[in-house]
């Protein structure tokens, strides 16, 4: 407004400088008003905008969005606050703070998420629903993750994995682990949830799920060509695909035994014992996206870490070969075999600790409260920083060294939280673990490998840390 008046009243250079001074003074006054003796250090910047641009800039770099957090921790210390997307965020860096938040989920804190994430996966997703719906939906979604269901999943996944590794071995060419694991986990999830095996339909759904995933951390403006716009349009197509699938099953045209069918068989149940169609569709999408992206990334990181640590790789291979020798030739893995993978389980844990495929766990304060003596205002976003906790040298000796044997000892409570904790603990935790164990068993017991691109840069615009190269490798059969 001041600049528009300049031609009539002031020299434009003077007004520009004057405007900057006013903004600076207002910002300084705002910080002074909102500060206190128990104030958390940090910079809020201007109302709404805050440091959003800096966060998006980090997300768009090859260092990844966590570089934004890392820099501010250097500037302000372990505890700091910032403002992004119009919300004040506090990053909680230790197990004591994590315990306080996780133990009071739904009491003093609720799930925190950016608008684009809720729009992408749906308001009835388990990630977004309020407390009164969360307990019911979580209970009804638990069947695919029961021990009985996991036992069936292990055999199917093992067969699928063996076939695909055999094809790669015969081809003899380099392949990208991230692409391989993304397709593998996606196909396995779609088979388990909806019995989809048709290649063309799988690839159509996969493309749309990728667009939805990309939109989860974007600016929520419906402008054609943007990640948000593409994600919302992809969500609409997926919803229509799921709706048609549900219609065919209700008409009796198809009725395979899977998760979707088990949900539809509850149609005559009372509302407290079933999911409506919107809840089914939103959570199908959530389970696919969450199950694919995080597990596939962890599988990629496991290959990289084991390649860099040959002693751990050799020890894991020795354990896995002993399991292979104890079974008839060509026999599939069973859930019981995974229980005998003691060192393998530690490799999975160490991979999850170091990769941090979930960088932090967002919550929103429902009331004014204190964490570790710091004042938290109602409505502030409280982010439990799993990455900071997992790399804390006071908790883990040489935290940047890949050392599965560190899990020989019991860890301090809330010092290992790759799946969160409390009533919102990741529903697919056990499925992710068995998926990784089956993958590592077949990889290490059947092959050695070389990594063909040692680039450590991260993929741009990804809300989950993934190597830009995807970790290409060449297999060599043992």
Structural class: alpha+beta
How many runs of DSSP E, i.e. beta strands?
A: 11
Q: Give the N-to-C terminal Cα separation.
A: 73 Å
Q: What is the chains' assembly state?
A: single chain
Average pLDDT confidence is 90
The coarse silhouette is: globular
In percent, how helical is the residue content?
40-55%
Indicate the radius of gyration in whole angstroms. Answer: 24 Å
Q: What's the story with the biggest beta sheet? A: 6 strands, mixed
Main-sheet strand order equals 1-2-3-9-6-4
Protein name: Cytochrome P450
Subcellular location: Membrane
GO molecular function, one term: oxidoreductase activity, acting on paired donors, with incorporation or reduction of molecular oxygen
InterPro entries: Cyt_P450, Cyt_P450_CS, Cyt_P450_E_grp-I, Cyt_P450_sf
Features:
478 residues; alpha+beta; 6-stranded mixed beta sheet; 3-stranded antiparallel beta sheet; 18 helices; globular; transmembrane
């Amino acid at each position: 407004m001041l600049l528009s008046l300049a031609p009539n009243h002031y020299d434009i250079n003077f007004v520009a400088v004057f405007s900057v001074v006013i903004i600076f003074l207002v910002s300084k006054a705002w910080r002074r008003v909102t500060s206190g003796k128990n104030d958390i250090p940090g910079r809020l910047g201007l109302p709404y905008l805050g440091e959003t641009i800096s966060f998006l800039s980090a997300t768009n770099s090859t260092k990844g969005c966590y570089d934004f957090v890392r820099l501010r921790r250097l500037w302000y210390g372990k505890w700091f606050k910032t403002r992004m997307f119009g919300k004040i965020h506090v990053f909680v860096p230790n197990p004591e703070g994590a315990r306080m938040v996780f133990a009071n989920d739904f009491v003093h804190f609720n799930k925190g998420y950016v608008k684009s994430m809720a729009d992408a996966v749906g308001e009835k997703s388990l990630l977004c629903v309020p407390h009164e719906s969360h307990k019911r939906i979580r209970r009804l979604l638990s069947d695919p993750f029961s021990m009985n269901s996991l036992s069936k999943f292990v055999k199917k996944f093992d067969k699928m994995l063996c076939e695909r590794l055999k094809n790669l071995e015969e081809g003899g060419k380099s392949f990208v682990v991230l692409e391989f694991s993304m397709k593998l986990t996606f196909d396995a999830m779609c088979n388990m949830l909806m019995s989809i095996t048709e290649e063309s339909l799988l690839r159509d759904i996969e493309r749309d799920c990728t667009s939805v995933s990309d939109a989860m951390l974007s600016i929520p403006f419906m402008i054609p060509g943007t990640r948000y716009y593409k994600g919302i349009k992809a969500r609409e197509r997926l919803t229509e695909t799921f709706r048609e699938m549900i219609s065919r099953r209700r008409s009796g045209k198809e009725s395979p035994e899977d998760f979707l069918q088990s949900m539809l068989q509850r149609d005559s149940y009372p509302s407290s014992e079933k999911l409506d169609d919107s809840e089914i569709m939103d959570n199908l999408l959530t389970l696919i996206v969450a199950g694919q992206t995080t597990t596939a990334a962890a599988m990629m990181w496991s290959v990289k870490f084991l390649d860099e640590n040959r002693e751990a790789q050799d020890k894991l291979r020795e354990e896995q070969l002993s399991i292979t020798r104890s079974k008839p030739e060509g026999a599939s893995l069973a859930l019981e075999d995974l229980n005998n993978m003691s060192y393998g389980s530690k490799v999975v844990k160490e991979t999850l600790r170091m990769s941090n495929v979930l960088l932090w766990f967002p919550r929103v304060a429902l009331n004014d409260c204190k964490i570790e003596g710091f004042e938290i205002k109602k409505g502030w976003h409280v982010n439990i920083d799993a990455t900071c906790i997992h790399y804390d040298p006071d908790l883990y000796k040489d935290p940047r060294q890949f050392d599965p044997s560190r899990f020989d000892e019991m860890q301090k409570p809330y010092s290992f939280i790759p799946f969160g904790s409390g009533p919102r603990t990741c529903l697919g935790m056990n499925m992710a673990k068995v998926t990784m164990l089956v993958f590592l068993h077949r990889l290490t017991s059947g092959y050695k490998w070389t990594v063909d691109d040692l680039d450590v840069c991260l993929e741009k615009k990804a809300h989950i840390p993934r190597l830009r190269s995807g970790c290409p490798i060449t297999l060599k059969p043992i």
